[in-house]
Amino acid sequence: MLANHSSATEFYLLGFPGSRELHHLLFATFFFFYLVTLMGNTVIIVIVCVDKRLQSPMYFFLGHLSALEILVTTIIVPVMLWGLLLPGMQTISLAACVTQLFLYLSLGTTEFALLGAMAVDRYMAVCNPLRYNIIMNSHTCIWVVVVSWVFGFLFEIWPVYATFQLTFCKSNVVNNFFCDRGQLLKLSCNNTVFIEFILFLMAVFVLFGSLIPTIISYTYIISTILKIPSASGRRKAFSTCASHFTCVVIGYGTCLFLYVKPKQTQAADFNRVASLMVLVVTPFLNPFIFTLRNDKFMEAFRDVMKRCCQLLKD
């Protein structure tokens, strides 16, 4: 589509293959997932903010994780839904593509940093309960969250800048439903071997930099839980970590497949499926993972709903 132009000023998102009927079915499915994601994560943020019983580091981090889920899906999913309703390919400007990719990668990096911090928090709660409130005080929690956000946004400046310094002269059709970095690299007529290798190293640093403390934390957590004499004590200790552990397995599993590979430009169809897992399925599941088996949260939720009903009756 670029003809004689040397680089792209806009891109066309190829989206999903298939008929219009399939697109309408996908729109209905993803729209439902998106609404539930918004409502579920918003409920978590509101309950954590208004209920004093949830004023602890675990729920403080959970509130920020829910905010990240809302933001990262809102950057991508509405554009994807609009593309499913449009006939043909969807046009996105160069500026919008840069912004979308930068925010998506920055928020994702922030989320991994926060997941690593949550693992350390669970280690402190289970393995050092007497010192937990001293170490994980409000000042520490705020500092951890601020560092996670700042790190996420600063870390992704160079990768996005380097990506859009390339010349996109092969085509301006992105074989995905958003400005996927791997597919953008595929459109470049520059030699991308070096930049792909650097991006691979940076992805390894982010993912394993947060995964290693998570693995170490859970090694100590499991060892401590197994030493608890009573079965009820072991169940109670494990229940405080089960939600985070489940989220870690799903999140890291999909992102390791998607980003930690030396060749970023391969397997567009597999990347599309993995991207859907990261952007649609995981944010949809997280509110249920973190709340349904959490007795304290469910009790707080019921109390807030009762208060809301009483206010409506009055």
From TrEMBL:
Gene3D superfamilies: Rhodopsin 7-helix transmembrane proteins. PANTHER family: OLFACTORY RECEPTOR, OLFACTORY RECEPTOR 6C76. InterPro entries: GPCR_Rhodpsn, GPCR_Rhodpsn_7TM, Olfact_rcpt, Olfact_rcpt_6C-like. One of its GO terms (molecular function) is olfactory receptor activity. Keywords: Cell membrane, G-protein coupled receptor, Membrane, Olfaction, Receptor, Sensory transduction, Transducer, Transmembrane, Transmembrane helix. Residues 40-290 form the G-protein coupled receptors family 1 profile domain. Its main location: membrane. Belongs to the G-protein coupled receptor 1 family. The lineage of its organism: Eukaryota, Metazoa, Chordata, Craniata, Vertebrata. It is found in: Cell membrane. It is a multi-pass membrane protein. Pfam families: 7tm_4. It comes from the Eukaryota. This is Olfactory receptor. Putative odorant or sperm cell receptor. The chain crosses the membrane at residues 25-50, 59-81, 101-120, 141-161, 193-216, 237-260, 272-292. GO terms for cellular component: plasma membrane.
